[in-house]
Amino acid sequence: DDCIQNKQTNNLVLLIPHLEVLLNNIKELNLPDKKRHLYDLLRILGNIYYDFIRNLTKAEKLFLEALQIGGNEHSLLQKAQILSNLGEIYTTTNKFEDALKYIIQSQKLCKKLKNVEVLQARNLQIMGTAYRKTNNFQKALSALSEALEIIQKIKGKEERVIEGEIYTQLGFLYLAQYLHKKESKIARVYGKKALKLINGDKFFHTTNSEPPSYVTCVTGRFRWKHSQIIMISSFNYKSALKGLKEAEYIAVKNCAH
């Protein structure tokens, strides 16, 4: 529910100053299991900044500090998730060598774990994005195709977000590789698949009476990306402009982050 999600986000934001004070106090004290407490707080704060505030600089700092403290004594799953988040942060900030380094580490940990298919698919999607942005199209296609194969076997709302992003990256991949060639039409296919997924899934639908949530912003960003894909690949500018304006309204005017 969108209203519940907004309230949860606001509550987490209010918690940040208290958690940061607690973190600083624990650093100064000589407590039993000090490293474990520090690791947990760093990880929790990092997740709040990463998932809800989208302050990637702050999240990166917290995640790196958690990894430095955590070592191998803590949950492998938690470590794999932190590594994955760092991979996405570095892909977003165009530090692709670092992105691939952390994603590969996360994937290695996933091989030691059970029931982590969603995380594996997400890692492959991030890996494919990094490869695409560095013009390594063959590796990008391999990673994204594998990610799509994994995620399509899993039912759930979170999984559809990842599936939509995979379609996005496949669309941009075909545009980059085959611009002004007939193969670029495949990009339009992926763009339309992603839009159909968004329109058909209740997870992406919000009410006008509620403030915009992270879900609303995700919807807008998807629409913006996919309208670009469809516009460039089809040259249907009138239709694409309508989609871009709708996306701009959702993603820019309604979203603070």
In short:
By secondary structure, this protein is an all-alpha fold. It has helices spanning 2-28, 34-53, 56-70, 76-92, 96-110, 117-133, 137-151, 157-178, 185-200, 214-234, 237-253. Helices cover 79% and strands 0% of the residues.
Description:
- The chain has 257 residues and is an all-alpha fold.
- The protein has 11 helices and no strands.
- Helix 4 packs parallel to helix 6 and helix 6 packs antiparallel against helix 7.
- The radius of gyration is 20 Å and the shape is elongated.
- The C terminus is likely disordered.
Based on DSSP secondary structure assignment, what is the total number of beta strands?
0
Beta-strand portion reads under 5%
Mean pLDDT: 79
Backbone CA Rg: 20 Å
Please mark out the parts with pLDDT under 50 across 5 or more consecutive residues, or reply none.
201-224, 250-257
Categorize the overall geometry.
elongated
Q: What is the number of helical segments per DSSP (H or I, 4+ residues)?
A: 11
Q: Could you give a short account of the major beta sheet?
A: none
SS-based class: mainly alpha
Which percent bin holds the helix content?
A: over 70%
- N-to-C series of helices and strands: HHHHHHHHHHH
Instruction: Give the N-to-C terminal Cα separation.
Output: 20 Å
